[in-house]
Specification:
The complex is a heterodimer of chains A (about 325) and B (about 525). Chain A is an alpha/beta fold and about 325 residues long. Chain A contains eight helices and 18 strands. In chain B, strands 3, 4, 5, 6, 7, 8 and 9 form a seven-stranded mixed beta sheet that branches. In chain B, strands 13, 14, 15, 16, 17, 18 and 21 form a seven-stranded antiparallel beta sheet that branches. A five-stranded mixed beta sheet of chain B has the order 1-12-11-2-10, with helices on one face. Classes of the chains: A alpha/beta (about 325), B alpha+beta (about 525).
């Protein structure tokens, strides 16, 4: 596995996985901005990830695109690449790299739990596993997202004169929250921040059930009483949110597990809904992958490295520049 | 328990005072035994003898790998929350009443604590577990003061909050008399005021720019602000007792006061260490603090006395509605009548302009006071921190520039940030730490420092990060002592970050010997 370095760069064939800076060949695991960037020569990714990159950065964000289906093999010299579902967001993938009978899996961001907005995670056995560790502490044990979304629905019912603004990342989390609301029979129109519109339209086009939505427009203030509005987290603190009547500020994120974090961010209704694996899912994936060599990328890597060493697995942290804990999801 | 724990959960996440009051009122809408316990918890009156923080750690280590717990605790920064989240065995049972749960816990025998209490923790939801652990460790820190609870109750049951305040320290669990009075079933509870701790009158910091323009110097008098601990002394022919500022009875820690004080009065003053009424500094006082008892040896080495500021009762007469000037006459009278007491009077500073007072604030002959108190001459003795009566004006702090060396994540509301900073000065070509600070910076400065630390870590020692030696902090502190416990040989009192010195290069920071010379340490 020494063919790949700590920057997820394969020097031999000049291929990067999720590079931060423009490169010749880039395999992109999913469309979030800390993984998918503008300006590569050649992007290899799932069709949906490529679509999302084009929506966000324009059709010419790379010179050449190679879409891969899940499970379809793609070879460069003696390296074989295959993408498998990561269950993180629509189009997200793990990357299996095979070389001389050595199997290496880069999980990218992933979650094991069920999610109707994307293909669910598939476990891939390997020799070396490079796993994420966003929630790599045993305090993170994500609850059932249905119960969390019920909290929101209940609060909407009780607080009829307030509007609920839910902070959720524009790509993935926002649509997941909408889908969860639909699963729980919330059938009202959901109002969205302008920056979510194109991505929501794309999800609808891809036949993900996010129901009826409408962009927030400056209507009469009281119009939004009793409504649910979804906005990127950055908009919660912005002047944008002041236009609403008695807003109750909510946030859908795995970080909401910790009350003190919610309080710091001024969140009144925390919803623990995560698109990353929790502690037990991380351990379970490591175990079932049968990998003997575990590398751990961004997040709370210390505890997971400690755990792996205790299980007699070779393990070390892999610090990838540009991704620090708590800024990502 | 479900109701109470969701009350706490909502209170901690609600920024608005009015919403907090509404949440409290929704909960206290009914007054039953559960609410009695809730009131005791909210006013920090309930604790379990055998279950404290150390016991809880012991229990959680039985369940979880110690290292994994420590990593988690470092991340969360709150013991109750870490334990509640990390607790692995979850057999959530039927929810119990708050009162039933507490009574069951109280019944547990000491020898069975580990198994029985663990069983209880396993049977609760995350949020209930968090609540229960908060109750055990005391000090909820949910952004709700005792005062706010009283205000909520007063508004809900149409009473005045001052009426509740007045009788508060005479009430006892389960607050039957309070609840009946709130429901208008009986008259206001009768309290023996002479035996009761009276909430102290506190001062607001003065705003030099605004207040001095606004206030007439002739209406005020000043006293030094002594650097000891504020106490209330209650003396009668039958008993003597000493209370801390928060109303805790601390009599047993200061037997010399209890044994020698004569007279019949309630005195407000400052407890200081020293002989012949000459205070000898906060370092000495610390030897007497946080102890339940004091040995004869300790009493001889570090004798205490009280410097009296005020008098609330004299021979059974309530003086609190009298003016400060009138109360002072009673205080002097009490002093003359009881000359054997270990009590002297805080002297009055005469001044006619604010400018004149400035020199008293800064140039007092020794370091034993923290500045001056400015009091309205005709102020009544009012509980709490009322605006417009008493002000405190602190000395300018001492300042030193030091280099940021290590950082650690903070606790409570700063728990995700690297907000605890260790800083040092030069000793030859190396740096030696001189102190640690976790306050003083603005929110913006904290973000900058946090980012710097994340991007410039050169070493990790468990939760502590060593950083590149590039940032100079101007540190403000109240005082500095020689210390044999620290490598640098110095210990600072109340250091805080004053500002970041972007303009200064690191090689211009003092050496430890220059530092000692500047602050007159041998």
């Amino acid at each position: 596995m020494d063919f790949i370095n700590h920057q997820l760069f394969i020097k031999d064939i000049n291929v990067h996985i999720d590079p931060i800076l423009p490169k010749k060949t880039a395999i992109i695991t999913h469309g979030h901005a800390d993984h998918a960037r503008f300006g590569h020569d050649h992007v290899i990714a799932t069709r949906q990830t490529i679509d999302i990159m084009k929506i966000r950065y324009g059709d010419k964000c790379a010179k050449k695109f190679t879409p891969l289906r899940y499970g379809q093999k793609y070879s460069i010299k003696n390296y074989d690449f295959t993408l498998y579902p990561a269950g993180h967001i629509l189009g997200s993938a793990q990357v299996l790299i095979e070389k001389n009978n050595h199997r290496l899996v880069i999980t990218g961001d992933y979650k094991v739990g069920k999610d109707e907005t994307c293909k669910n995670f598939k476990l891939v056995k390997c020799d070396t596993l490079i796993t994420e560790a966003t929630f790599g502490l045993p305090i993170f044990q994500h609850p059932d997202p249905k119960d969390e979304i019920q909290k929101l629905i209940r609060s909407v019912k009780i607080n009829k004169n307030n509007c609920h603004i839910v902070g959720a990342y524009a790509l993935g989390k926002a649509q997941r929250v909408m889908n969860l609301l639909r699963q729980q029979k919330y059938n009202e129109t959901i109002y969205i921040h302008g920056s979510l519109e194109k991505l929501c339209q794309y999800y609808s086009k891809e036949k993900i059930n996010i129901g009826k939505f409408e962009k927030v427009s400056s209507k009469d203030k009281n119009f939004y009483e009793g409504k649910i509005i979804i906005a990127p987290p950055s908009a919660l603190k912005d002047r944008w949110s002041r236009r609403f009547p008695n807003p109750i500020i909510c946030m859908a994120s795995g970080w909401m597990t910790v009350k003190q974090r919610a309080k710091q961010q001024g969140i009144e209704l925390p919803l623990v809904i995560s698109d990353h694996s929790d502690w037990n899912e991380l351990l379970d994936t490591i175990k079932k992958s049968k990998a003997k060599n575990i590398l751990i990328t961004h997040g709370q890597e210390d505890a997971l490295v400690y755990y792996c060493k205790k299980q007699n697995l070779v393990s070390k942290p892999l610090s990838i520049q540009g991704r620090s804990d708590e800024e990502i999801e | 328990m479900k109701k109470f724990s969701s009350l706490l959960h909502n209170l901690i996440l609600t920024p608005s005072r009015n919403t907090k009051i509404k949440l409290l009122q929704d909960y206290f809408n009914k007054l039953d035994i559960n609410r009695s316990y809730a009131l005791a918890i909210l006013s920090d009156q309930l604790s379990f003898q055998f279950i404290k923080a150390s016991k809880l750690r012991e229990l959680v280590y039985e369940q979880v790998d110690q290292h994994l717990f420590d990593y988690s605790y470092d991340y969360v920064g709150d013991l109750a929350e870490t334990i509640s989240l990390i607790w692995p065995t979850k057999k959530e049972g039927k929810s119990q009443n708050l009162s039933t749960l507490i009574e069951n816990i109280k019944k547990i025998k000491k020898s069975e604590i580990n198994t029985e209490f663990s069983k209880i923790l396993s049977g609760l939801s995350n949020n209930e577990r968090w609540t229960l652990i908060k109750i055990c460790t005391g000090g909820l820190r949910i952004g709700v003061s005792e005062r706010l609870v009283k205000t909520a109750l007063a508004d809900l049951y149409n009473k005045s909050v001052n009426e509740i305040e007045e009788i508060w320290h005479g009430l006892e669990f389960p607050y039957q008399n309070l609840f009946q009075w709130l429901k208008n079933e009986t008259s206001k509870p009768k309290i023996d005021f002479k035996k009761l701790f009276h909430p102290m009158m506190l001062a607001n910091p003065i705003d030099e720019e605004k207040d001095f323009k606004r206030l007439d110097a002739n209406e005020f008098q000043a006293e030094y602000k002594w650097d000891g601990i504020r106490v209330q002394l209650m003396v009668s022919s039958k008993s003597v007792s000493l209370y801390s500022r928060t109303g805790d009875n601390i009599s047993s820690a200061f037997p010399e006061i209890i044994e020698t004080t004569k007279g019949d009065a309630v005195i407000d003053g400052e407890l200081l260490v020293g002989r012949n009424f000459k205070p000898s500094g906060f370092n000495d006082l610390q030897q007497r603090l946080n102890r339940k008892k004091a040995s004869k040896d300790l009493q001889n080495k570090f004798p205490v006395f009280i410097r009296a500021y005020d008098i609330l009762f004299y021979k059974g007469k309530d003086l609190r509605k009298f003016s400060l000037l009138e109360r002072r006459k009673y205080l002097e009278k009490f002093q003359k009548e009881n000359k054997t007491n270990q009590i002297d009077l805080s002297s009055i500073i005469n001044f006619s302009t604010w400018k004149e007072l400035t020199k008293y604030k800064n140039n007092f002959h020794d370091d034993l006071n923290e500045g001056v108190m400015i009091k309205l001459k005709n102020s009544e003795y009012l509980p709490g921190r009322k605006k417009g009566y008493w002000y405190k004006w602190k000395k300018n702090p001492k300042l030193v520039d030091a280099i940021l060396m290590y950082a650690q994540r903070g606790h409570g509301k700063r728990s995700s940030y690297y907000s605890d900073f260790t800083f040092g000065v030069w000793k030859e070509s190396e740096l030696v730490p001189i102190g640690k600070a976790y306050s003083g910076y603005t929110d913006k400065e904290l973000l900058v420092l946090d980012k710097f630390i994340r991007n410039n870590t050169i070493n990790k020692f468990g939760p502590v990060r060593e950083v590149k030696k590039e940032i100079i902090l101007e540190v403000a502190f109240d005082d500095v002592f020689t210390s044999t416990r620290h490598k640098s040989g110095v210990a600072m009192r109340f250091p805080r970050i004053h500002r970041i010195r972007w303009d200064k290069p690191v090689n211009e920071v003092l050496t430890i010997s220059e530092f000692k010379k500047e602050f007159k340490l041998s």
